Here is the input.
Amino acid sequence: MSRPSPATALSGLRDAQAPLARFGGLVATDLRDVTRDPEALESAGFWAVVADFEGGLLCARFGDVRGEPVPRPVPGAWRGPAPTDWTSSLDRDAYIAGVRRVREHIAAGDVYQANLCRVLTAPLPDPARADVDALTALLARGNPAPYAGTVRLPAHGVEVATASPELYLRRTGRAVESGPIKGTGRTAADLLEKDHAENVMIVDLVRNDLGRVCATGSVTVPALCAVEPHPGLVHLVSTVRGELAEGAGWPELFAATFPPGSVTGAPKSSALRIIGELETAPRGPYCGGIGWVDADSGSGELAVGIRTFWIDRDHPGVPVLRFGTGAGITWGSDPEREWDETELKASRLLTVASGSAHPLTGGNAR
Here is the structure.
């Protein structure tokens, strides 16, 4: 088998490190500015946005934005960890114990629901050539998603590939919309009364969050608990809409709604406290916000950062790939079933991200 020439290999490395953002049929290059100030999203230009669950925000303005389909996967372009190489911040026993602890908090009246998550980590086989946009190409074939994308800014510590199915915020002028997901099963027949109750609770939370920044009386729920199919599973999805109040923009939207309610719990403040007690690793871009803002047109679309991979090159020893998975815990939760839900959400994606499965077939990682 022939080996690439040094010049070809260097070109590939440069491409894998070049700043880029990709969302659906749009690709952005020619990086102009990077800031952590949300006020920039009210200025001018096209911005890629990555907001960590812990509150860190990065906004990158690109000068060249054009229509371009997601490229087809190139054999060998992405080398990912084997599905068996991943370790979890919470193992099965610890996660099940965490679910039981959340139920104790619910019984005590501290919270109605809390999202309990774990972060999976695996060493990258070839970190120097690892390109999250090549991973996005694999995910687009093996696990297509409505809010898929890439944000590649290695000089700023951001290399994210997402196959998110969930809308965090969409803005068109003064109109805003959120699409919280709560309730997951292999098929619609697997969905329980608990799943519907969980969705309704989070819809109420999202209504309240948007109500803090929208005009009085403008917040509505056009769709409640719609069953939406995705590769390998189904979700219950609702839609919440409102009209921004006078003077409110992206900074106020973030302040009112972040982190997204579907990945925290209700009440949000209590859920965040419990999450801090039980989870042993930061979530990073997982469960944060990932997407784009066109400040010139007053529009934007941010996904909830679920079904999301990110490269951590600051990990001691060797750069690693990370992926998060979790479940919403209510009084009606069965601890082992909740563990199984986190496995269901992860299995297909870990197989696709290994680069060893045919991207059209996916498969189970565990």
Observations:
- Residues 6-173+265-354 form a domain with the Anthranilate synthase fold (CATH 3.60.120.10).
